[in-house]
Amino acid sequence: MTYLTSNQLKQYNEKGYLAPINVLSKKEALEARNEIEKIEKEMPNEIDKSGRYNVHLISPKLDSIVHNSKILDVVESIIGKNILVCSSTLFIKDPNEYGYVSYHQDAKYIGLEPHNWVTAWVALTDSYEKNGCMKMWPKSHLEIKDHNEKFDKGNLLTRGQTVENVPEDETELVELEAGQMSLHHPRIVHGSGINKSNDRRIGFVIQSYIGTNVKQILGKNSVQLARGVDRFNYHETIGRTKNLMDKENIALRNRENSYLQEIFYKGSEQKGSY
C-alpha cells in the first residue's frame, strides 16, 4: 500500500497539488512510450490533436497505468475508496515545436460536479523546465477564476482557455523524472511552456479519477470502475482493453472522444484543433 502521508495530504490540500510521486519504473515508462510510438507509426494521426484522448482504451500499456495499484492508493487517499476512471489525455510536445498550455483550471470546462476528483499527470519521459514541464500556481484552487477563450495558435487546450495575469513569481515548476507523477486539484491554475529540448516530452494524464458521487453536467462520460463499488451508477460502465489497437476498442474510443468534444465545446461558437 502506498497511501499518502499526513504531510503529503496537507501539501495537496493547502497548495492544490502534490509532486513528485514515484509510481512506475523507468522500464515501464519506456514501454508505455514505445507502445504510443507504435500506434503513431502504424496508425498515423490516430492519436494526434483531438485523437489524443482515451488512448488507454486501445493501449494495454496505458490501461495498466490507469489501473496501477500505486496510483490508485494515493488517489484513494484524496477522493475515497470508490474510484472511477473518467478519461485520459496524452500531452506530447515534440522537440522545438511551438506547443504550450496556457494557464487554466480543469474544472472550468470539464463538467464534473462536485469536485471530488483528481488528475494524475504521469511522466513517460523526463519533464523539466527546458522541455516544457507543468507550472502550478499554489493555493489558486480555492475558487474558480475567469477565463478568456483565445483559440490561439500553438495552444494545446481546446479553446485556448486562459487565466490572465497569473503572478509568475508565485508559480512553481513541477519537474518529474520518467515514471513519476503529480496529482492536481480540479481548480488549481496550471500551464506549461514549449519544448526547447532535443527529445519529446510525453505526459500521460488520467483526467480524471472521480468519486462515484460525481456527475457529468455538460454531457456524458463513460467510466471504468478502478476500485471499490459504484452505488450511484451515474455513468455507463465500459470494460478494459486487452489487445493493442483492437477494432472494437477503437470504435469505443471514437465514441467516447465524440462525447468529450461535445463537453469541451459546450456553448462555444468556435471549435479548435483539440
Description:
This protein is an alpha+beta fold. It has one domain: Sandwich (Jelly Rolls). It is built from six helices and 16 strands. It has helices at residues 6-15, 26-42, 60-66, 69-79, 107-110, 247-264, and strands at residues 17-22, 83-85, 88-93, 101-104, 112-113, 117-123, 134-137, 148-149, 161-162, 172-174, 180-184, 189-192, 201-211, 215-216, 222-227, 236-237.
Layout of SSEs?
Layout: H1 6-15, E1 17-22, H2 26-42, H3 60-66, H4 69-79, E2 83-85, E3 88-93, E4 101-104, H5 107-110, E5 112-113, E6 117-123, E7 134-137, E8 148-149, E9 161-162, E10 172-174, E11 180-184, E12 189-192, E13 201-211, E14 215-216, E15 222-227, E16 236-237, H6 247-264
Parallel strand pairs: 15-16
Antiparallel strand pairs: 1-11, 2-13, 2-15, 3-13, 4-12, 5-14, 6-11, 6-13, 7-10, 7-12, 8-9
